[in-house]
Sequence to fold (479 residues):
Amino acid sequence: MKFICLTLLIISGITDSRSEQYKVVGPRDPVFAAAGEDVILPCSVKPNISVVDMRVEWFRLNLEDSQVHLYDDHVDKYIDQSEPYRGRTELNHQELQRGNASLKLSSVRVSDEGLYKCFIQSKYQYDDTTVNVNVEVVGRPPVISVDGFDHSGGLHLQCGSEGWYPKPDLEWLNSEGVSLSSETTETHRNEDGFSVKHTITVHHRDDKIHCRVKLRHHVLETQIITTKLSQLQNEHSRLQKEHSELQDKHRRVQNEHSQLQDEHTQLQNEQSRLQDEKRTIQHEFSVERDQLSECLKTVLPKVNVSLDADTAHPQLIVSRDGKEVRSEMTQTKGVDGSKNRFDKYLGVVGKDGFSSRCFYYEVQVKGQTQWYLGVARESVKRKDLISLSPEKGYWIVGLRYGKYQARDSSVYSLSLNVNPQRVGVFVDYEKGLVCFYDVKSMSHIYSYTDQCFNEKLYPFVSLGYERNENSTPLIICDD
Ligand SMILES: *[C@@H]1O[C@H](CO)[C@@H](O)[C@H](O)[C@H]1NC(C)=O
Ligand SMILES: *[C@@H]1O[C@H](CO)[C@@H](O)[C@H](O)[C@H]1NC(C)=O
Ligand SMILES: *[C@@H]1O[C@H](CO)[C@@H](O)[C@H](O)[C@H]1NC(C)=O
Fold:
């Protein structure tokens, strides 16, 4: 009985085990998963018997602590599930009845890439299959940039794209879709994935150049219209030409500028020199003008000048009223030689002197060829040859040898526009001014300025020195 039972058990066991004979099958090819999306990792048993009562376990190969999903005792068990897969795995329990133990993995990450084991165990046997998961990350659209132009007119282009996984392929295509070979290629890997960068130089004028980045069935493409670029290039070379022309021009202008600056400096020097000169002249002019206007604006009544015959040189004849004097060539009879007379100059002074304010008188010199006139200090020396200068107490103008003269420290020749017929003498005692002018033309002859008078001043007229054959008188004008 015991034997029978055992036999039955064995038979039924054999029958059982035969009825449960199965193989676990997975996909032949790798499974491609796009990052961020969901993916099904296929796994099923053949024949398609129910695996509801079995243990289904998914785990990563070659990784420790790598349980991905566990179904056992009719429930999903998450106790030992690896952290990165928390909440992202799902077995369809209905599908389990049909022998389908495919795992749904959501929000795929790059780190999910690798080999997975699908392990299915019944009471009597177990089997597994391996699923190869490849994760893809589609990067950003490629960007073409123009790097410039070379001397032969080639157009340098650069195309780059970032954020791919795994490394994508990049290629250049012309407008007919023919692949063009890149000049340089660069690939970088960082947390963001792979970035690629290729350069090319385009010589013929293709309408369009494409840059295509491809990762299996993912393709992103950008194109550039090179006709516009060739216009750009023409523009560019035109601008370059203009630029260098402008640079030349700039240099020329700079040279001219510095020349002009030099000239300018010279002119400025010249100008300041001229300004100095002008100031000097203006100053002189204003002094003269002031003196003249001083003289001319003064319309003073003439003082009543009478010549003092007692001071006259013995050869002079002074009229009875003291208004005229002339040269006689011979000594006048009855002249008292003891008096303080002039004995070399044919001079005579007025009877009255002045020691304040202003005074003015006029002398007619018309027809006379030698004369001096002006004022003299009371204490002047009348004898001998003396200098008729301010230093010696004389302020005069005169005519001798056809030349008009005044005297400072030396004889000072005057160039006059007129030959004075009547000379006005103006004295401002306080200001120290003695001023001569031609009465008829009202023009200035000469001025002594800033003189210091500390004695009485007397009108002084003279018919020259020692001899005068011209008997024309000098006449004091009262009219
Ligand atoms: C297996 O189950 C999954 C869902 O978990 C389903 O998407 C897939 O189509 C099933 N496979 C077959 C062969 O029916
Ligand atoms: C198993 O597959 C066969 C055909 O291969 C099909 O007829 C049968 O319905 C399937 N059984 C289940 C439970 O899906
Ligand atoms: C000028 O003075 C003299 C005497 O010195 C005198 O005879 C004469 O009348 C005076 N003339 C006038 C205009 O005052």
